[in-house]
Amino acid sequence: MTNEELTLYIANQIKKMREFRNMNQQDLAERLNITKQAVSRYENGQRKANQDVLFELSHIFGCSINDFFPKNEANTKQIETIAAHIDDDVTEEEMQEILDFIEFKKRNRK
């Protein structure tokens, strides 16, 4: 994966996590103490989120900083296993959202 691809992947993860929590860009900007435009730049890959920003986002979203990065090969096997139990019309993106939700639920167990 190139640096540009990684930047875009992280940007997409930030947007997905924000939307999953029903936040708009202004809400997130206020939590980060930055402008809405800066959030937009993070989400479209025009601005790289450094480790401090990702650390703060992990606190805001209640996730691991690792959730912003691509999964490893072990997760590919997990996707294939889950996919075997779901209809054929689920896209790869939808499958990743399902996996993200499962991880979110696991992290928030009491």
UniProtKB/TrEMBL annotation:
GO molecular function, one term: DNA binding
Gene3D superfamilies: lambda repressor-like DNA-binding domains (1.10.260.40)
Domain HTH cro/C1-type, residue spans: 14-68
Entry keyword annotation includes Transferase: no
Keyword DNA-binding: yes
Key words, A-Z: DNA-binding
PANTHER family: TRACRIPTIONAL REGULATORY PROTEIN-RELATED-RELATED (PTHR46558), TRANSCRIPTIONAL REGULATOR (PTHR46558:SF3)
Name the UniProt record assigns to this protein: XRE family transcriptional regulator
Native source species: Macrococcus bovicus
Origin organism lineage: Bacteria, Bacillati, Bacillota, Bacilli, Bacillales
